[in-house]
Amino acid sequence: MSTQGDSIHHQGPAFLSWRKLHLSKAKLKAASNTSALLAGFAMVAVVEIQLNNNNSDSEQLPKPLLFLFAICTTMLVAVHMLALLISTCILPNMEAISNLHILSLVNESPHEKMHMYIELAWGCSTVLGILLFMVEVAILCWIQFYSVLKEAAYVATAILVPFVILFIWFAIIFYRNLVAHTYETRKCGIQELEELKHVLEMGDELTTTREIRNGPLVNII
Amino acid sequence: MSTQGDSIHHQGPAFLSWRKLHLSKAKLKAASNTSALLAGFAMVAVVEIQLNNNNSDSEQLPKPLLFLFAICTTMLVAVHMLALLISTCILPNMEAISNLHILSLVNESPHEKMHMYIELAWGCSTVLGILLFMVEVAILCWIQFYSVLKEAAYVATAILVPFVILFIWFAIIFYRNLVAHTYETRKCGIQELEELKHVLEMGDELTTTREIRNGPLVNII
Amino acid sequence: MSTQGDSIHHQGPAFLSWRKLHLSKAKLKAASNTSALLAGFAMVAVVEIQLNNNNSDSEQLPKPLLFLFAICTTMLVAVHMLALLISTCILPNMEAISNLHILSLVNESPHEKMHMYIELAWGCSTVLGILLFMVEVAILCWIQFYSVLKEAAYVATAILVPFVILFIWFAIIFYRNLVAHTYETRKCGIQELEELKHVLEMGDELTTTREIRNGPLVNII
Amino acid sequence: MSTQGDSIHHQGPAFLSWRKLHLSKAKLKAASNTSALLAGFAMVAVVEIQLNNNNSDSEQLPKPLLFLFAICTTMLVAVHMLALLISTCILPNMEAISNLHILSLVNESPHEKMHMYIELAWGCSTVLGILLFMVEVAILCWIQFYSVLKEAAYVATAILVPFVILFIWFAIIFYRNLVAHTYETRKCGIQELEELKHVLEMGDELTTTREIRNGPLVNII
Amino acid sequence: MSTQGDSIHHQGPAFLSWRKLHLSKAKLKAASNTSALLAGFAMVAVVEIQLNNNNSDSEQLPKPLLFLFAICTTMLVAVHMLALLISTCILPNMEAISNLHILSLVNESPHEKMHMYIELAWGCSTVLGILLFMVEVAILCWIQFYSVLKEAAYVATAILVPFVILFIWFAIIFYRNLVAHTYETRKCGIQELEELKHVLEMGDELTTTREIRNGPLVNII
Amino acid sequence: MSTQGDSIHHQGPAFLSWRKLHLSKAKLKAASNTSALLAGFAMVAVVEIQLNNNNSDSEQLPKPLLFLFAICTTMLVAVHMLALLISTCILPNMEAISNLHILSLVNESPHEKMHMYIELAWGCSTVLGILLFMVEVAILCWIQFYSVLKEAAYVATAILVPFVILFIWFAIIFYRNLVAHTYETRKCGIQELEELKHVLEMGDELTTTREIRNGPLVNII
Fold it and tell me: Where are the transmembrane segments (chains A, B, C, D, E, F) (predicted)?
């Protein structure tokens, strides 16, 4: 029975790594879906917007607005393409591991080494990318409304301001909560595994039988 | 046998939390799908609408209509982007837990701590977002029909009014029903688990065997 | 063995409710997919159609046609948004239950209480929504052909008439068949469960063993 | 052991019906996916085509071409909407049955009663709908090329003719092959089940054990 | 034990047919996805391209270019629609068989009889369809650049030429490799099955037990 | 017991090949999804961009910009079509093998022979394709801004430059890390399998029983 306890002791960090693998995979998938969609819409907006649709009698769009539009569009597409590149590069390596459902292969998944890039891809895609998409829509409103009714564009921007603040505030809150949450549960997770190991070493035959038959559970712990 | 009873007693709240995890996950997925789609259509509408397509001989669009269009579009995109952000941030953490199918990890999922944000994302996306989409289409009808036939735009608005009322009424009904429903079933759920614990402590060997072999059931209860 | 019989007797209505849950879930999913797609196309049509594309020399579109277009578009979007709202509200609660694969939780799913709304969402989306989409395309044909060749629009409408009649006739046939079918099979279902209970009370050891090992079957019956 | 033989004898027609259920489900899903996509493209074509884009100096589109375009578009949308309606109506009822994986419920699925409508939906969507889509593209080529280079439109039509013939020929071949194939295999299927019943009645203990453990197989036969 | 050996001998060709069924299914699915997407883009291109967007002062598009565009577009749509028809016709019959996971039903799947059509659908969709799509984009570049800068169109064509050659060369290499590969592995497959049969006839009790419990393996071999 | 050890020794390379199969499959799927999407957007951009939208009074687009646009668009579509061709050709052969879940068939999958082409498809689609998409958006910005505000186009390009550098740097880092990672883990993998073989030869009865029951694990190792 001690063999089993050892194997769990041995698999403790492997199991945590396995969970990190699943978390990273879910993050990259979410990033990749959001990125492709929003970058596509941004490109359509660039192609179909008409910057000089007014004849010489109506006033021209102001320069800062055009600068903002050029910067925001390029940033939006670049950020999402970067997220898509990172996601397309790392995800296949992680899916190839996680689809085999063999815990001991978890060390061969690149999600620990590439941790920083995964967080970067996810952060680029969600926080920066979605924020830039909101700003892009506001700029498009400005371009469309400028020669028609400037006040409407001011109102649209005024509405967007609290949302952007809310947005950044949420991003900070989420980040803190998740970091705190991760740290806390990781500590608990190790304690729990220690206790589980203890219980198993003490465990009677019935418990063993029950656990052995719970296919997926045994595969992983 | 008492060990098993204890383990169920211990897992009672964990099991309820596991169910909340599944509910939150389903809500966020629904919110994320709806949000991306409707925000995309709203952006296309902003880019492709022609606010000054009439030459100087036809009458201009009235200012309140343009204000409404700017406000509604910005709100619509902002609300859906907020829902998308919340969904993209929290969902990976929950999927990483729920894909492992291990009940004891449920405490590490952020769905309890982030409960308020999940409800906010879902509420934003469904009730507010879908309502704003309906209003947006009505405004688009106004813009298209204004210089052609104003009466058609009035009729379109008149048709929309009962739908909006129906809409808000349904939202209230759903909210009340679900809240009442949740409260009621949660109470029943605890009672049921108590009874289940009792039955299992009394249970004969056959029952135990049967339950042990029901793989997925045992994994969870 | 009588315990098992009792448990099936106890689960008889629960099992029927479980099946209703699956049926409602499938209906809402179908409604939600169709709704989002068709409402999106309707919005694109509103934005991109040009109602005053003809200069003063060609004749204007007639008022009844414009009224029809305004009414049909608004109805189409409103009907699909209503179906989407109902679907997005109820579906997560049902998926959270059905994903756990535990029969006894079926009472906590809102599909019985919300039965009327589910049928409404499905009816709105399929029968009314698809019919309105067909009418919308006919109106778009009218708008496009009016100043070019009115006869082509008449022919298009003439072709659509038998389809609409076929459509309504099918909807009625389907409704009757399904209602009759449901009633009939529900009666059979109860008889069958009664017989199954009887067989199980009489059953020999071999039968029991065979059934116990059929994982998914035992989970549900 | 004779009990088991009887149960297979009893389940013979049920099993064939189960297979028909799977076939009908696959057909309706294919029909529904194709229909929504092609109808959507047809609607976009109606909205965005410009029938009077030429000023008075270039020649008008001929009347038969406009008639053809109006007829083909309306037919195309109507045929696909009909297929979508039938698919959305019947599919949920079949999915609710097939997702439970219980063979004895197969009689409650409406796929036998509604057989004619399922074949109609599938035929509409695939044969007629895809053929009309090809013709629609040819007509669009005509409209676009008419005032530019009529010969190109003639060539496009000439290329399409052998494809349409190939198309109809394939449809007939497929239909005959599948009907012949279905008839033949159904006869074999019944013979095979008879033999299987025989083998099982003769079977020794080892065979029985092996079959019982093959979960999915036992669930169905 | 000889019974088991016989059953494997009997299932040898059935198993090879089962694998061909999976291969054909995967090919048709890939063909159907690619076809719908590329045909849709081609139709959008036909509707939205403006062939006479230049006033009388700029030069007209040359006739051979217009002929090429008409031919390429019609071929592209016809080839993909043909692939879609074949795929929609045969795929449901194959999915209905493969979803049941019963090896003995493999003879009822039409993938052997319809082998030629499946290869045709796949070849149309991938090799011919993708090649035509590349040519279509080159023609669109020509149309857009003709009245602006002819040299750019020449450069674009010059870039495409090596890709088309690479394309055809790859198609030939793939075809040869896969045909050779299939032939070789099929020979090996039969030898392997012969050896497996031998091993099983010689096999000791332990081996048998191990194999019997490997659910999915036993289902298929 | 030595038989089992031998079988693992025999399956050592097969298992590594099985993992490579999963990795290649995941890569090709990612490549195919990205390719279809980005090529589609590129085609829409070609069709909808207006290169001569300015009347004779505004200045013409410069020749190098038009050359760049023609080259970049053609390369973008050709690269993605090549990736799509390779993916559509090889993926069905690999899916047909991997869906059967039989380890011994891994030699019949073409992923070893076609290794070079798979890497080429993946590299084309991700690194080159995504990079070209970013450049394409920058060129589109130039075309749109050229006659309005050239400085905005310069700023957009300036923003893109660090992203492209970051992009290439990431691609190199990823490539090195993954190659190093693969080499390292492959060495470990062989050692681990050697040790596993050793443990199994030494293993007691309990271990054997536990492993045999872990269905999916045994299927693969």
Answer: 28-47, 67-91, 120-146, 152-175
* Record: contact D216-E75, CB cut-off 8 A: no
Q: What is the mean pLDDT of each run of 10 residues along chain D (221 residues)?
A: 36 71 80 76 82 58 87 89 83 78 70 77 79 88 83 87 86 72 56 58 44 35 29
Does residue D55 sit in helix, strand or coil?
coil
Q: Which helix (H) or strand (E) holds B220?
A: helix B215-220
Question: Do the domain assignments include residue D76?
Answer: yes
F109 vs A contacts (CB less than 8 Å): none
Nearest CA in chain B to C77: B134
- Closest CA in chain A for residue F208: A212
**Which of F73, F89, F96 lies at the smallest CB-CB distance from E141?**
F73
C-D CB pairs within 8 A amount to 164
- DSSP-based three-state secondary structure for C54: coil
- Which pLDDT does position E189 carry in this prediction? 55
Q: Do chains B and C touch (3 or more CB pairs under 8 A)?
A: yes
Cβ contact C141–D63 (<8 Å): no
Higher-confidence position of C1 and F66: F66
Residue B182 CB neighbours (<10 A) = 16
Question: Token pair of E186, please?
Answer: 């099929």
Other residues' Cβ atoms within 10 Å of the Cβ of residue D181? 16
How many structural domains comprise chain A? 1
Residue C96 lies in a domain: yes
CB contact under 8 A, A160 and B88: no
Interval F149-198: pLDDT, tens: 888 888 888 888 888 888 888 888 777 766 665 555 555 555 655 665 56
Q: Search chain B and give the residue with CA nearest C45.
A: B45
Q: What is the CATH number of the domain that holds F88?
A: 1.20.140.140
Closest chain D residue to E66 measured between Cα atoms?
D152
Q: Which two tokens stand for residue A57?
A: 């009698």
Backbone angles phi, psi at E56, to 5 degrees: -60, -15
Copy the structure tokens of residue D59.
Answer: 């020649």
**Residue F163: its pLDDT value, please?**
87
Instruction: Pull the structure tokens for residue B201.
Output: 């402590």
Q: How far is CA F95 from CA B3, B66, E37, in A?
A: 46, 54, 21
What are chain F's partners, defined as 3 or more CB pairs within 8 angstroms? A, E
CA-based end-to-end distance of chain C: 15
Instruction: Determine the Cα–Cα distance for residues A167 and A179; give it in Å rounded to an integer.
Output: 18
Predicted TM-score (pTM) of the model is 0.74
Q: What's the CA gap between E114 and D175, in Å, rounded?
A: 12
For an interface test with D, the pick among E88, E91, E103, E112 (most D C-beta atoms closer than 10 Å) comes out as E88
- Cβ pair C134, D78 in contact under 8 A: yes
| Residue contact C30–D88, C-beta within 8 A | yes
The per-residue pLDDT for A101 is 67
Domain of E90, in residue numbers: 2-220
C172-206, pLDDT tens digit by residue?
Answer: 877 776 666 555 555 555 565 566 556 555 544 43
Whether residue E68 contacts residue E157, with contact meaning beta carbons closer than 8 Å, is answered with no
Distances (CA, A) of B147 to B54, C141, C159, C179: 8, 21, 32, 49
- Across chain F, which has 221 residues, the per-10-residue mean pLDDT values are 36 71 80 75 82 58 87 89 83 78 70 77 79 88 83 87 86 72 56 58 44 35 29
- Domain contains D188: yes
With respect to residue C140, please indicate whether it lies within any of the assigned structural domains: yes
The long-range contacts involving E160-168, CB below 8 angstroms and separated by at least 24 positions, are E160/E134, E160/E135, E160/F74, E160/F78, E163/E134, E163/F78, E163/F81, E163/F82, E164/E131, E164/E134, E164/E135, E166/F82, E167/E130, E167/E131, E167/E134, E167/F81, E167/F82, E167/F85, E168/E131
* CA distance to B73, B180, D196, per residue, from C88 (Å): 22, 18, 48
